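User: I'm putting together a small comparison set for a docking exercise, and I want a reference complex before I start. The sequence is below, and the ligand is glutamine. Could you produce the 3D structure with the ligand included, as structure tokens?
Assistant: Of course. I'll restate your input first, then give the structure tokens for the complex.
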Amino acid sequence: PAPGLTPDYPELLHTAREAARETAGQGRVADYIPALATADPDAFGMALATVDGEVYGVGDWEQPFSIQSVSKLFSLALVLAHGGDRIWRGVGREPSGNPFNSLVQLENEHGIPRNPFINAGALVVTDRLQSMTGDAAGAVRDFLRQESGDPLLDTDPVVAASEAGHGHRNAALAHFIAAHGNLENPVETVLDRYYAHCSIAASCRDLALAGRFLARHGLRADGSRLMTGSEAKRINAVLLTCGAYDAAGEFAFRVGLPGKSGVGGGIVAILPGRAALCAWGPALDAVGNSVAAVAALDAFTTASGWSVF
Ligand code: GLN
């Protein structure tokens, strides 16, 4: 769109949906958490929430899905909002280049995970948020409720139990981190609260609204300040370099926006100063990113010409 003209958001979302449709049949729904395997691989939704308060959507944009690792964006934001920079003593901010549930780097790095968006790093973030609030998952849930305006948004207990029942890798990560003295709370508590925030069910609409503070340089829906503009910039930077697992480079190449994906098939992406987007389709590529959501975001930024570059 020409500068100064109101962009045709519905048309851009339509273009994105068409690109998502062309991926039909590609990818596979996550099944390592059995409760996620029942998701409809053909579902697709996308929402856009502008900094001025407009919300647009297409497809199944109001249907709740399991947010999974998208929750890691919000747990990090809340830890930074509560405690500032201290978190960076316990977790790094370099891309890992390894799968999101990998154990291999922890040993060499003395129990300090590479970044807050791989599982190991998110466990440390959950631990600190637990210390700060007494209920890390409740803090994430309440933030999502407030930003989306949906008071019923909550953890899906069936998904949380399914994760806990198949959580050997996460338990191994947590115990290893604890062995290095990098957890403040009992391993069982950290895992329980981590599963509870990953298992929150929310829609594209909810997540676009909840991610909007990153497009508004730290301002929440009610106009209050969650964090400084500098902190929001830093989160966007870590999202860009680490938000799409070991495909963060490919995601930057195709979409050109900071973003966070989850194995429920959702991806939240930020257009700083303009809008937050959320696209969702349950079928995942080999590293765990939604095939349809990446295609939709790629088409959206290509058609609009918007990226952080
Ligand atoms: N809860 C999931 C896990 O711990 C989150 C993974 C993801 O979305 N990448 O494995």
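The longest strand covers residues 45-50. The chain has twelve helices and ten strands.
User: Thanks, that's exactly what I needed.
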